Amino acid sequence: MTGLIAVGAGLAVLTGVGAGIGIGIATSKASEAIARQPEAKGDINKALLLGCALAEATAIYGFVIAVLIILFLK
Amino acid sequence: MTGLIAVGAGLAVLTGVGAGIGIGIATSKASEAIARQPEAKGDINKALLLGCALAEATAIYGFVIAVLIILFLK
Amino acid sequence: MTGLIAVGAGLAVLTGVGAGIGIGIATSKASEAIARQPEAKGDINKALLLGCALAEATAIYGFVIAVLIILFLK
Amino acid sequence: MTGLIAVGAGLAVLTGVGAGIGIGIATSKASEAIARQPEAKGDINKALLLGCALAEATAIYGFVIAVLIILFLK
Amino acid sequence: MTGLIAVGAGLAVLTGVGAGIGIGIATSKASEAIARQPEAKGDINKALLLGCALAEATAIYGFVIAVLIILFLK
Amino acid sequence: MTGLIAVGAGLAVLTGVGAGIGIGIATSKASEAIARQPEAKGDINKALLLGCALAEATAIYGFVIAVLIILFLK
Amino acid sequence: MTGLIAVGAGLAVLTGVGAGIGIGIATSKASEAIARQPEAKGDINKALLLGCALAEATAIYGFVIAVLIILFLK
Amino acid sequence: MTGLIAVGAGLAVLTGVGAGIGIGIATSKASEAIARQPEAKGDINKALLLGCALAEATAIYGFVIAVLIILFLK
Amino acid sequence: MTGLIAVGAGLAVLTGVGAGIGIGIATSKASEAIARQPEAKGDINKALLLGCALAEATAIYGFVIAVLIILFLK
Amino acid sequence: MTGLIAVGAGLAVLTGVGAGIGIGIATSKASEAIARQPEAKGDINKALLLGCALAEATAIYGFVIAVLIILFLK
Amino acid sequence: MTGLIAVGAGLAVLTGVGAGIGIGIATSKASEAIARQPEAKGDINKALLLGCALAEATAIYGFVIAVLIILFLK
Amino acid sequence: MTGLIAVGAGLAVLTGVGAGIGIGIATSKASEAIARQPEAKGDINKALLLGCALAEATAIYGFVIAVLIILFLK
Amino acid sequence: MTGLIAVGAGLAVLTGVGAGIGIGIATSKASEAIARQPEAKGDINKALLLGCALAEATAIYGFVIAVLIILFLK
Amino acid sequence: MTGLIAVGAGLAVLTGVGAGIGIGIATSKASEAIARQPEAKGDINKALLLGCALAEATAIYGFVIAVLIILFLK
Fold this sequence. Notes:
mainly alpha; 74 residues; F1FO ATP Synthase; hydrogen ion transport (chains A, B, C, D, E, F, G, H, I, J, K, L, M, N); homo-oligomer of 14 chains
């Protein structure tokens, strides 16, 4: 059933929707925070990087599962 | 089942919905932040670029999986 | 199964929904920012263009996948 | 399967939902911005036009794919 | 399969949901803006007309596709 | 398949959901605006009428398509 | 297929959901506006009536289509 | 197909969901308005009654269609 | 098809979801209004009762239809 | 078809979701109102009880229908 | 059809979703209210208990129906 | 039908989604309340514990039903 | 039916969505609270830990059920 | 049924959507908090790390279940 495998891979990579919205929210407030307190930009960028890396990780989990589905279940 | 493969590829590229909304939110607050603190525009643009690049990446994961589905599972 | 291919292409191009909403949010706050700080309009427009271009890109991914589905999977 | 092709075309043109909401949000804040700073109306209108054109483009992608589905997959 | 064609046409014209909500949001803020700055009503009405015309266009795309589906795919 | 035709007509007229919510939002803010600036009621009513007419139009598109589906596809 | 006709009529009359919410939003703000500016109640009631009539119209479209489906497609 | 007729009647009466939420929103703001301006309670109650009656009407449309489905399509 | 009749009755009574949320919103603001203006509690309670009765009515429509479905379509 | 009867009973009792959220919203604002005006706690509690009883009733309608479905349609 | 019975029981107990969110909202505002007016904590706790008990009851309805489905319809 | 039993158990345990969000909302406001009034932390923690315990209970109902489904309906 | 078992396990572990959002909301307000009242960080962290542990528990219920489904129903 | 196994794995890894949004919300407020109180950045970062680790854990549960589904149920 190759067709349903494609559907499964498509569903898996949709995990990135959450990361895309989450990173956008984080970036929006971080740029607002830099405007309010420019001298704290180093600390804000560190927090932003930490959060974005962890959020991006959830998108990568989805990507990895999608690739696994295509390679292993074909 | 070529039809379900097309559905799978269509689902996969939908990952870009999150990135589209996320980048929009990030840009909206960044332009507001530049208006509030124009001299911090360099730092704000850096944070915006970082966030948008990571969010765009989630859309690209979806695009790559959609292309993989079309090429490998056909 | 030509019918499901059409459904797949229709799903793929729906990626533009996120970009449409995202660009609208970004534009709304950018025009507000220009009203608040008209002399920063150059920098605001640059940030707006950057964000809109990246968001538009996610819509184009969906468009490209929809065209690929129609051409390659027919 | 002509019926599913019609469903696919109907799904594709739904991309305009995002553009419709997005343009509405952008216009709402732009008219508010003009009321707050009437002398900046030229710059606000430029930003509004840029954003609306890009958002409208996502609706046009959906329209084009819907026409392609009706013409090519019939 | 005449039935699914009817479903497709019904889906296509649903594009107007976005335009309906979007035009409502735009009008709501425009009337608020006129109340705040009555002498700018000309400029506000121009922006409102521009946005509503573009949003209405997305509804018309859906209408056109629905008519095409009924006429061409019957 | 008369049953699916009925479902299609039912879907088509659902377009009015967007118009119903949109007109409600527009009216709510317009009545607030009249309370804030009663002497601008003429201009506010014009903007409200323009927006409501365009939003109502999207509901009418759905109504027309629903009637077309019932008459032509029966 | 009498069953699906019933489902179609049920879907059609659901158009009233939008009108129900929209009229509620309009009434809520209108009563707030009357409390803020009691002497403008005539003008506010006119705007409220205009908006509610147009929103109610969308519910009536759905009702008419539902009756048409029951009478003509039975 | 008696079963699907029951589903159709169940869907039709769901129209009341919008009216239920809409009446709740209208009542919430009306009671707030009475607290703010107790001497305007007559006018507020009139607006509330007008809105609630129109919203209730949408629920009654759904009820009527549900009864029609049960009686006429059985 | 007794099973689908049960599903239809279950759907019909779901109409109460809107009433449940609507009554909750109305009560929340009414208790806030009583706290702000305790001497207007009589008028607030009347408005609350009016709104809750009308919202409850939508839930009762759903209940009646559910009972009708169980009794008449069994 | 015992299975679908179970699904119908499960759907029916879901009516409690609206009551659960509505009672939560009402309680949240009522406790806030008591904190703001402790001497009005009697009147606030009466309004809260009235609203919660009516919202709870919608959940009980769902419960009754679910029991009826299990007993009468088995 | 044991499988669908399991699905029905699973649906029924989902009623707890509304109670979970509602109790969370009520608790959040109650703890805020205690912080604002610590000497009114007794009255706030009574209102919170009343609301939570009624919301919890909706979750228990779902639990009871789920147990009934498993025991009686097996 | 072991497969649908697994789906039913999966649905049942999803009840925890409401509890997860509800506990998060309650905790967020409680920590804000402690920051505003640190000396009332004992009372705030009691209210938080009460609410979280009741919300957690809804998740446990779902867990219990899921276990019952796996053990009794297998 | 091994396939539906996989779907059931996938549904079960989705319970973590609520916990993920809830913990994020709780953490966001807790970090805001620490910034407002740094000397209360011990008490805030205790409340945060309590809430996060209970929310995490709902995710673990889903994980346990998913593992049970894979092991016992295979 | 390899296809449904792929769908199940795709569903399971979607758990990361909640974590992605949650981490984004937490990071957004944490960077705002650092801007408001830069000297408390150590404590804010600790709370952020605690919350993000727990939220990330829910995404990892989904990832683990997805891998288990692919390996054990194939």
